[in-house]
Design brief:
The chain is of the alpha+beta class. It has one domain: Protein of unknown function DUF3067 (HIT family, subunit A), CATH 3.30.428.40. The chain contains 4 helices and 3 strands, in the order H-E-E-H-H-E-H. A 3-stranded antiparallel β-sheet has the order 1-2-3. A hairpin with a 2-residue loop joins strand 1 and strand 2. The longest helix is centred in the middle third of the chain and has 17 residues. The relative contact order is 0.23. The mean pLDDT is 92.
Amino acid sequence: MKPLEVDEIIYYLQNRWGKKYDFRLFIRKNTLYLQMMWKFLEQESFHLTETQYKESLAEKIEILNRGGYSEKVRIWLQTVNSKPRLGRAVSLQLEINERMKEFLL
């Protein structure tokens, strides 16, 4: 399984939506959620510099790669029909697997 990379994610974002959206990861019960937020790097009010954005994205990608979710995320980014709107993120639900359980301990 090929790991995700920062430049790959940015490529999908730029080609699909023309914006570098922010992402958030969180866990609820037995589900890991990857949320594509409505905030994006090109906004004047965005809270991170481009370097900070890439570092933040790299941290999230590392977690997804370690959990073995890279292919699911890759397919989702290529096929999801929605895009984030003000106050509404687009979410990918990932069942917490054994690899992720070990990582969370």
